[in-house]
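Progress report, Aim 2. The chain analyzed during this reporting quarter is listed below.
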Amino acid sequence: MSRLVMKFGGTSVADLERIRRVARLVAAEQAAGHKVAVVVSAMSGKTNELVAWTDGAGPAAPGLPPSDDEYDVVVASGEQVTAGLLAMTLRNMGLRARSWMGWQVPIIADDAHGKARIDDIPPEKLAAAMDDGEIAVIAGFQGVTRDGRIATLGRGGSDTSAVAIAAAVGGACDIYTDVDGVYTTDPRIESKARKLAKISYEEMLEMASLGAKVLQTRSVELAMAYNVPVRVLSSFVEPGEAPGQGTIVCDEEEIVEKRIVSGVAYSRDEAKISLFGLPDHPGVSSTIFGALADANVNVDMIVQSKARTADTANMEFTVGKRDAQRAVEIVRKVQPSVGFDDVQVNEDVAKVSVIGVGMRSHTGVAKSMFEALASKGVNIQVISTSEIKISVLIDAAYTELAVRALHAAYGLDQL
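Predicted structure tokens for the chain:
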């Protein structure tokens, strides 16, 4: 009998009827011989409601830091409700089940409240319960710091909880969501999007980090690091209705046919910061990005170019929209020491990316991308590349047009 961690997102547990369907899926896996743990998110919309309550409590008094630790206490409560309800439902079906909070497992995390990272999951207590035939229903998204405080893992943190727990107990991980697998792009934008039977960890990591909402980035990092088998599948089926459904996220070597491009991802959660008149000498970039890193502001695309004035440069980089104004404040603080002329922010941008392990062995991928965008009149503002992806920053108004054009350009509707 193998251990299996099942994870259900917010839409999958949005109300009591959906929780009952989840319970039936869990019961079916136990009946099939698995030792089961279940990781649950808050019911759909609850986390947003809880966050709004913390916003309504008002800002910290002048000179005091934000109460990020108490913010975590509030927003982590949504998962606690779901875990209790699902455990009750399973018991009412005659099954042995109990809820586990993050501190009970324990999921030990650092103290970066609101976006904590998992440090360790001692598996002994949880594995013993699973091996004894009890279904463990675990509140996702939450951990506990070493000094005993609740810490949340950031948006999508339940995915990370599930994969980390699977790694700790040596099991596989099934991620149940509101889609039936990983698609070549967002089916809401491109109706010709195709479901992938398999996708490599690397491709999934790029797609997750570039805007695909199916899996959270850190969960894929963990799966790849610990070689956890992950399957993405729909929770909106009854047990046995869709045998062999979903998409398997696995090692590249398990995929026989390597596609040049596997998917097109996009993100509208982008802001472009432009710095003008930077002194063009060593240490400038270190000062700017060091200050942003110290403030936990994640920087993505970066491009620097010569300015018209001698010995000066202009620089553009992107951050998440939520961090945009804070990023501007941080670079303004270092402006006196760096000596640049001006800073501007543009939040009306989007990042569109093509991803595929086949890029390693095929040329012309970038040429096809730029030709497809040019044919639709889409102007490229910033470009960044890695071994298996090309990303461009464009005007947000052209996002859907660009996604459809690229999906067609690489023949993804023919898969």
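The chain has a mean pLDDT of 91. Residues 16-31 form the longest helix (16 residues). These observations will guide the mutagenesis work planned for the next reporting period.
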